[in-house]
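We store amino acids, tokens; thus:
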Amino acid sequence: MAGQTKRLIDVIVAQRAKGNPTIALTTKAKLVLKGVNPNSFSDTSPDDPALLVRLKSIAADLGVRLPGMSITTAQSTKPLPYAVADLKQQCGDSKPRVVIVFSSAKYDSLALSQQMQQAFPEACVAGCSTAGEIVCGRMLKESVVALFLDEDIVEDAASAVIEGICWETCVQGAFSKFEQHFKAPVSSLDLHKHVGIVLVDGLSGAEERLMEKIGDGTDVFFIGGSAGDDLQFRSTHVLADGKSYTDAAVLVLLRLKRGFEIVKSQSFKPTGRTLVATKVDEGLRKVIEFNHRPALDAYAETLNIAADQAASQFFHHPLGLMIEGEPFVRSPQRVEDRSIRFYCRIKQDMELAVLETTDIVADTRAAIDARRAGDIQGLIEFQCCLRTQQLRDENRCDQYGAIFSGIPMVGFSTYGEAYLGHINQSSTMLIFR
């Protein structure tokens, strides 16, 4: 990790000083007397987990409530079991109620799940494999990251596993488990205090059906993403209760003390042109015809390009299902004959807007800055692997990471995002207040 020490110091000084330069100076002097010299740390300084715990103690002594004091992040690139020991050390003395873990496919998912549950036996532990990991804005590879939520954030939590989702998706068993745990029907839970996290086998092709079933059964928001496998597209895993699953989804239902907010950010805008899916194969996520013409030809025509150039525009010109003026992105995957396969299901007769790219960094910064007026304790980001690749290609990962400065956060690069339905080329975020 790097930079978190400086961020904690800056927050301590700013909260004590409240704009008074004299108090800012005396606060820095107090830190030096306590053995922490603010001038010794920068945004790139490596973080010592023991020092981070000590700084939180110093903040409490000074009467400063640090953002994210109830939320701790950690990351490791060590092999198992040393990686889990590393994460536990970074967690410090806190006793998290919920642990969310995202890991590269290089880690044995069953061993990781077992060891994390053993390391945090009293916590609700859930997670998945990834196509890249995110911690405090930094985009990593071949690592494992974790978010620890304590009782000051989470009043109560429960997890449930839905197996066999490829052929039939039934959420009733999961909902029954939640109802037994929370002593109330899922449909009656307070929407301002309860929120769900959903992690899905990213190669199941069952995300749309799953999210539809969840939405039919409750108005509680479930947000999350599809597990990855470092872009190998062979096998993805979800983790819960010390076990690892494929062809499954893990649902985690949280009751929060201070509420939450959901952010969906995508860097596209409508071009004013539309396509209607007039012939589809929903099971294969394939559109055979748009506007009663071969899908490839109709798509190319909207962009005024030759059909053999269409695939080169998929990344920059996906399609969007428009809901209240906001696009829910459906990204083209590849051409098959003159049909187009998508990463997301498109239904018969669905009207879609042709989109064009905007600035991914500026759009995400605007979305987060608009929420900074409130107290952001931390967040989880579910970011499409296509967005991650775009940021890497444009060499803008550092710019993107700076958006989350001072916010404890983890996330992962997904094979699709979950919010109301299954979407692509988006970043969906759960903010803890």
In short: The first helix runs from residue 4 to 17. Residues 73-261+361-432 form one domain. The CA atoms of residues 416 and 424 lie 5 Å apart. The radius of gyration is 22 Å.
